[in-house]
């Protein structure tokens, strides 16, 4: 393929050999999350640009540099979703979900788009599984979602997982802290990286996230938000931690934890895997008690997370996933039997059997090889005189006449214990 027709930089094809591992992620997530009462939601792949500008936050890297924004034919500004929380909150509002019993517990598995520098584990279109629990500020919700992600990562055998936890407090306590941090950063401005220095007033918290040595040195002694929380926030945080302790989930309280989204309040968390390189975040989230109001709704608390599917797979040991079993391969003995073979395959599929058939005019020997490759349990060789059914497990074969229903009944019976 010429370079211009290759998949765009930072994107990838999910090929048939990748499908089983991804199916396993999805089925594990579904069992775990639906078992805990989370219901599936899917929102559109694009939304009004304003949703992300208001929801994710104007000062974030995502909104400033990473959005795929375009105009449609009617000059509306639309953006490919860079994340799922703002769209799910938009749907909660749009469909009046505040009238349902709270919290409304939702999960999704979708692809997201960010114009980031592409590297291992960082893509421009990537997949997330995520949950959002909207409508309750109870610390049990925070603990529940964190424990569910912990269980998901364990079930998927993601290696060397660590959980970092913090509390950001309420906007009021954070605002007072921000002023103190800004003043501190201004007094140390000459030691900071130019990028951090320019954004002291816009986003001082981001300074905790910098790799720049001078900035890191300044931040090591910077005032910490955790020391500025009010009593209610501290109680909430203590309650979340007590429940995580009760669940035996280990974590490290990290007062320098920063995540690249503006909507967080109170609980903030991130799971990393030491099995990954620079892009070590496998999943993270937090509480966003101001987001729904920010989007025009009544004040409504919420908490959730998202985990990257590619990163979970990268950080888990690759293991074989069972292929879908083939009950019957229908071979044809001569072209004259093609229609009868086709009819038999169709009948067998109608009886809920997994059936493949010859589609490329191979010799009978080639067809049997093909059946073997597909690991078919039975092969029906349809000839003009009748059908021979071979049990590929036992190596026996039997003449089963010309009646398709009889062949299907034989396979259905034989599929159970004991064989033909
Ligand atoms: P996020 O931390 O931006 O949070 O993304 C969550 C996860 O998505 C990351 O931990 C990472 O595994 C994966 N991810 C993010 N960007 C990329 C990328 N470019 N390539 C591959 N994987 C990536 C959110 O998106 C929030 N909406 C999570 C949340 C839900 N907070 C509350 N509710």
What's the short version?
The chain has 420 residues and is of the alpha+beta class.
Secondary-structure topology with pairs:
Blueprint: H1 16-35, E1 39-40, E2 46-48, H2 49-55, H3 61-65, E3 69-71, E4 77-80, H4 85-94, E5 104-113, E6 125-134, H5 139-155, E7 161-167, H6 171-187, H7 194-198, H8 213-220, H9 231-246, E8 252-253, E9 265-273, E10 281-287, H10 291-294, E11 302-308, H11 309-314, E12 326-332, H12 338-350, E13 355-357, H13 364-373, E14 376-382, E15 387-391, E16 397-399, H14 404-415
Helix pairs in contact: 1-5, 5-9, 12-14
The structure holds histidyl-adenosine monophosphate (HAM).
What attributes does this structure have?
420 residues, five-stranded mixed beta sheet, 36% helix, binds histidyl-adenosine monophosphate, alpha+beta, eight-stranded mixed beta sheet, 14 helices
Major beta sheet, specifics? 8 strands, mixed
Strand content: 15-25%
Topology as a string of helices (H) and strands (E): HEEHHEEHEEHEHHHHEEEHEHEHEHEEEH
* Cα-atom radius of gyration: 28 Å
Mean pLDDT: 94
**DSSP helix fraction:** 25-40%
- Calculate the terminal CA-CA distance, rounded to whole Å: 49 Å
Q: Helix/strand-derived class?
A: alpha+beta
**Bound ligands, each once:** histidyl-adenosine monophosphate
Strand order of the largest sheet: 1-5-6-11-10-9-7-8
Total number of helices: 14
Unreliable stretches, pLDDT < 50, 5 or more residues?
Answer: none
Number of strands: 16
Shape: elongated
């Amino acid at each position: 393929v010429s370079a211009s027709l290759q998949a765009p930089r930072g994107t990838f094809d999910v090929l048939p050999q990748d499908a089983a591992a991804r199916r396993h992620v999805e089925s594990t997530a579904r069992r775990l999350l639906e078992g805990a009462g989370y219901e599936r939601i899917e929102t559109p792949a694009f939304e009004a640009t304003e949703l992300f500008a208001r929801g994710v936050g104007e000062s974030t890297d995502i909104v400033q540099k990473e959005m795929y924004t375009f105009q449609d034919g009617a000059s509306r500004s639309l953006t490919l979703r860079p994340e799922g929380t703002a769209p799910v909150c938009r749907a909660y509002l749009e469909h009046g979900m505040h009238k349902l019993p709270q919290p409304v517990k939702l999960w999704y598995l979708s692809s997201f788009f960010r114009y980031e520098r592409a590297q291992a584990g960082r893509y421009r279109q990537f997949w997330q599984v995520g949950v959002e629990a909207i409508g309750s500020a109870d610390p049990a919700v925070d603990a529940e979602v964190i424990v569910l992600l912990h269980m998901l990562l364990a079930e998927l055998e993601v290696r060397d997982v660590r959980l970092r936890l913090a509390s950001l407090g309420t906007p009021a306590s954070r605002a007072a802290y921000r002023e103190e941090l800004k003043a501190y950063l201004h007094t140390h401005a000459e030691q900071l990286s130019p990028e951090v220095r320019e954004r002291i007033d816009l986003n001082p918290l981001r300074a905790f996230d910098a790799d720049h040595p001078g900035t890191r040195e300044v931040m090591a002694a910077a005032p910490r938000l955790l020391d500025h929380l009010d009593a209610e926030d501290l109680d909430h945080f203590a309650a979340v931690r007590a429940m995580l302790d009760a669940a035996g989930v280990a974590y490290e309280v990290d007062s320098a934890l920063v995540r690249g989204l503006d909507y967080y309040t109170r609980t903030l968390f991130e799971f990393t895997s030491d099995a990954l390189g620079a892009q070590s975040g496998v999943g993270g989230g937090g509480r966003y008690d101001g987001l729904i109001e920010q989007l025009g709704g009544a004040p409504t608390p919420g908490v959730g997370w998202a985990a990257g599917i590619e990163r979970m797979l990268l950080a888990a040991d690759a293991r074989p996933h069972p292929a879908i079993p083939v009950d019957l391969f229908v071979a044809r003995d001569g072209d004259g039997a093609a229609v009868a073979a086709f009819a038999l395959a169709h009948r067998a599929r109608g009886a809920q059997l997994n059936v493949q058939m010859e589609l490329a005019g191979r010799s009978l020997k080639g067809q049997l090889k093909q059946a073997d490759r597909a690991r078919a349990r039975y092969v029906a060789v349809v000839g003009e005189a009748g059908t021979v059914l071979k049990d590929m497990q036992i190596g026996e074969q039997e003449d089963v006449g010309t009646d398709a229903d009889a062949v299907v009944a034989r396979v259905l019976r034989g599929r159970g214990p004991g064989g033909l």
